Amino acid sequence: MLGSCQNGGSFQNGLIFKINPNGTAYTVLFEFNGTTTGGYPQELLLASDGNLYGMCGTGGTNNLGTIYKIKADGTQFVKLMDFSGTLTGSYPSGGLTQLADGDLIGVTPFGGTNGPSSLGDGVLFKIKTDGSGFSKLFDFSLSNGYGPNFGKLKIAPSGDIYGMTYGGGTYANGVMFKVNSTGTGFTKVFDFTTESGSAPYTMQVAFVPTSPQTLSFSPVSDKRVGDAPFQLSATASSSLSPTFTSSAPLVLAISGSTATPLTAGKVTITAYQPGNLSINPVSGSQTICVTPAKPVVTQTGSLNNPVLTSSATSGNQWYKNGVAIANAINISFTATETGVYSVKTTVDNCTSESSADLALVITGDISPQASPGLIIYPNPVRNIVFVKLQGGDRNKQAEMTVYDINGKLLDQMTFGSGEISFSVAHYPTGSYIVKVVHRDKTYVARFIRE
Prior knowledge:
450 residues; mainly beta; Neuraminidase; Immunoglobulin-like; 5-stranded antiparallel beta sheet; 40 strands
């Protein structure tokens, strides 16, 4: 076993010792000398690197205490830091606590920028195990508690770090406080009163063993701007009720368990159950898209030079025959070739559904050549036209639509044999577009009714 004495030793400044559990083999490992090493050593910490770390309440360059490390066999003593008062704290009277990232966190009962005298009300600090990266995290005060004393900070199952102060707070009887897992976010948890107890002499707290709980968070699908509010559902195994929060309230607002899509974007929904004294907290999250509203395309310009305009002012991608058109990302697009056009809108990697198809016949684009794999004959035609899909899966239905030169939908039908025929005798003379969708692939052909 290892321990320290605050006084005694050759220099009367304290020492570190080891001893067997049965009281035998007592050995002095290291003696503090005051100015060089510090004196009045406090509680030891055996850190994850196998070294011992601690603080001295006095001594050092400024006679305000030190932080040190030493091997468990008493060799290789290193003074990591001298406390200086206002900037770093002074006269530490407790031990250090190691954080998950390996850094050390601790307090001093004096020093810092607050206090009725030059001694100060104490500080909360963090330092790396090699003595670098010292950071004063918080200055204690009369209102937030002062004089965090003996003992050391304790890490709760939640990851938060707790401690107590000897005085200060609302009733001047001390407080319980917590910070988050990085040592920031100071929160006063409780103000002691005469009735509830006062002046806790040690800042160390103990935690009641807790039980885990699980959370079942029902899947949430992507939503669209304009969709109706919907309900979130999550159940904790403890039967305690969870709460819901949105990472982007301007995208998805949450009130209670009701979520309302507002604007397009990506959002993370978190369900959280904080637990209680006997149950650990638990949380779960899902990231969804609130996709932009389905864009609407308007057509202006001449038949030979049609200009297509999206209702979305940004994030557009234009398509021809179901294939994205390279660099066609502006609000407007001028079509120069016969085909079926559409547009999709993307915000924060969340893409809308496609606009309604707009079939265009550009009279200057006289080529009747169909998409590879689609044959239409005879062409020109007077009565019956045949549409044949080569290489298609005859067991899968194909969807076919027919448009006139102005993009008006004339006929819509499905076929599964790879070929279909239909009458166009009632069509006025002119150019028409046939669009076939089969297994997520789009084919387009133009024919002429003579």
